[in-house]
Specification:
about 5% helix; 8-stranded antiparallel β-barrel; Porin
Length: about 180
């Protein structure tokens, strides 16, 4: 586990250069997303796969906002499960490197779960919060590849679920600040 914690700093150091990047006005991203869902209190967890899309606006070289939609599906304990999140919040970027842009974000919004999710008899919408970050590997001024990891907190059936989600995909940058 300790070796894994050193991967991100090693990537940052290896990819770093002294030149700062241009700041795009807008960022549109989409790709694959994985969710490690945890049923609160029971210790049971399961995996879901899906996709994600995001639209972000940069206010300056370090602060912006992002709207994200993620959708997952799979089977858990013999039941078909679908889960969607819609969140929005601030993004804090560090644009001092040529090849990478590390960032941190906190987002708040809604989670929608389908019938059959942890015993819910009908669809339900509940509060969702994500916190995490990632790294954009810059291909050029217009395109990047995003690697993102986040904690997702949800509340169903009067208990809290602590989930992990990981995403990767393509970022398209539009305009300049």
């Amino acid at each position: 586990m300790k070796r894994i914690l050193w991967i991100l700093p090693a990537v940052l150091i290896l990819c770093a250069s002294a030149r700062a990047q241009q700041v795009p006005q807008w960022e549109i991203s989409g790709g694959y997303s994985y969710l490690r869902a945890n049923i609160g209190g029971s210790g049971s967890s399961f995996n879901l796969n899906g996709g994600q899309g995001a639209l972000g606006e940069n206010m300056n070289n370090w602060f912006g906002g992002r709207f994200e939609v993620k959708a997952y599906s799979g089977t858990a304990f013999g039941t078909r499960v679908t889960l969607q999140t819609i969140t929005f919040g601030p993004v804090f970027s560090y644009r001092k490197f040529d090849k990478i842009t590390p960032y941190a974000d906190v987002e708040f919004g809604d989670v929608h779960a389908s019938a059959g999710f942890v015993g819910i008899s009908a669809s339900a919408n509940k509060f969702a919060m994500t916190a995490g970050g990632g790294v954009d590997y810059n291909i050029n001024d217009r395109f990047a590849v995003r690697f993102q990891g986040e904690y997702l907190m949800t509340r169903f059936l009067d208990s809290r679920q602590d989930n992990l989600q990981f995403s990767t995909g393509l970022v398209i940058r539009i305009g300049k600040k």
